[in-house]
User: Fold this.
Amino acid sequence: MPAAELTARAVTTVLTLKERPHVPLEAEALTPDVIAPLSRDEVRALPVVLGKRQRRLDDFFEVEGAGSEELELRGDCGRVKWIGRGMTRGRVRVLGNAGMHLGAYMKGGEIEVEGDASDWVGGEMAGGVIRVRGSAGGQVGAAYRGSTSGMKGGTILVEGAAGIELGMRMRRGVIAVRGPVKDFAGLQMKGGTIVLMGGAELRTGAWMVRGTIVSLRPVRLLPTFALACAYNPVFLRLYAKRLAGMGLAIPHDESDGAYLRYTGDAAVPGKGEVLVWQPAAP
Amino acid sequence: MAGSSTLRIKGGKVYDPANGVNGEVRDVCVRDGKVVADVEGGRTIDAQGCVVFPGGVDVHTHVAGAALNFARAMIPEDHRRNLPFVRTQSSRGGIGGATPTTYVTGYLYAGLGYTTVNEAAVPILSARHTHEELRDTPIVDKACCVLMANNEILLDLIEKGELERARHVTAWNIWAAKAYGVKAVNPGGVAAWKWGKDAKGLFEPVPGFSSVTPAQIIQALAGIVDELGLPHPLHLHCNNLGAPGNFTTTLETMKVLEGSRAHLAHLQYHAYGGGDWGTMRSESVKVAEEFNSRKNLTTDAGAVLFGNTVTITADGPWQHLLYKLTGRKWGNIDVENETGCGVVPYVYKEKNLVNAVQWATGLELLLLINDPWRVYLTTDHPNGAAFWRYPEIIELLMSADARKEQLKALAPKALKRVVLPELDREYTLSEIAVITSAGPARALGLPHKGHLGVGADADVAVFNESKDVRRMFAYPRYVLKGGEVVIEEGEVRRSVEGKGLLVRPAYDEKVEGFIRPLFQQYYTMSFDNYPVEMERIEHPEVRPCQQPS
Assistant:
């Protein structure tokens, strides 16, 4: 291997979208696992699918540098699907928006999106970290249709808002959203933790069997959730510490207030919990 | 459809048990879609080192119709697990798995060397849909059995003892569905399910009726099928499917059937002892013993293989129970006055005691029933496993060592509930040809199928002879359908269209005057839209009925 190429590997592979495609582009090759061992020409020749036609990656992207563990996607990739699908290592930075199924099935590594991400961020992921600076669509960390479990591990952070069915059927892992979340957050949840910093719309935790939903704002709960007690769970301190390192502050100190613990969903019946933050009277 | 070309399959070891040919090296010659004594010129296929079988015949499978489509919609996760079939010059795209799409079903069956299938459960109400799907199932010839044992109009007639009218209604129904045979599923039980009940006792009145019992329904239908002279006997799914201790019902059913022909479907699901799930065991010895002595019966294994699948049956009450056991998904369909249906995705696990017993029971029956001409290879696709896994069962039947290997993976507790470890019978290639082709063709009453004698349909499978039996049967070298080479070296070379096999039993036209007012009163659709038109059947072949004696 030429020395120049070895040096190139140490840096980032930059892919710049030439033009936003008219229909979604399916690009599951855009992962460090696939791209890292390849030369620049091999990267350029990677298959992508537009509609029913298979095309080359360089039909849509300018490719700079040979393959590396770090990918940088430039341009509006809001119609590029499956970025980081099933990745196990490395890092993907998306400077604009990202299309559907970002980081679906991923097992490790890190994805960061500067703009917004579409639906199914981290669908059925098992590990790794996804950070969306803008907003995310629906079904974040959710189970694909028909599957029994959604995300089984890893962390998803959304700085903006998120859509419906956040964490649907999730089994493990953490999802934290700074902005408001739509209906059915934690639908049929089986485990794991959802942190709602900006509250949620209707039917939060519907059919949840286990797991924890933490809300820093009051949420409207289904009548099948019952108030158990007010407390400050110890495990939340650990979560707060880790999320603080990622720039998200979760209150947990008794002097600041307490969490009202609601259990449900009794319709299933389930043993999940919704913790609603109750600030101490000033 | 019939190829005009001639063809010679040269130098293969031919297994044609119907004609007493057992591994002889000889040529098979084909002209105009039929097997002939000799040909001159034309293509020659070199089959040296290969074995030549008549094309496979599946006597009991579920490959088309409303229930199967319902199952397809219920298991998108299964579609994702399986690689898609990509469109080629000679084949269309689709998806495999537990419930393959229509086109892929045809390709997969042909890809195993199977050329005829019998869709085992069709309500008349969804017969039109079933035929549309069968039309899109390429290569294989297709027959179907129409569901009768929970048809309210028929049950009322049997209750009142009006058996002659019941015969005319049955014959009218068969023709209305453009069916080939009559299927009975859990006689009376599915009708009872509409009252939230089941019909567990053969001699107790069916809930919702005043006196008719499952035994009466079975006797009446088996008698009617024989009187109508249908080529295939009553195709019966016995009462109490799947329940521990159900072998007594199965033995009683065999007695009830005395004097009539019948085919007992998926016998594995009807051969359990024990009192509950904790004590369930195989009773294959008793069931096989009784079956061996009753020459009026045929059966198919309904064998189970470990792994993911989806269960589909008209047996609604059983499916509700299975859903309660799995706690996962459940689909339930009500088919007006005819039948019902349940769909439950299921995983057979090696370490699960019940599943281990089921796995062993299927193989035990295949090994303990001593006449291969009366027991056929099926998995009750997709209930026990998908049909494309048949080569795994063939391997288990041909090798006691392969069975021992799988037995090691089972829970030790399960071994005390089964007799499989004691059975050392190994199937020969000729016996495999019987249970996959010659036997089921005979049971279906198809004299031109399941053999390679002069005049037979030129449906032929050519396998590379190998010690690796599973691989050998999973990848035939050539498959001929109606004389055309459809599979070559594992690829679909040519996708021909199969025939629709059906019968037109004799009935009194006036019976329509009896059915019409009942129908107009109790059904949601118009009577005139009910029967399936002949034009709906692609390449129909009306098979003859025996003249009533």
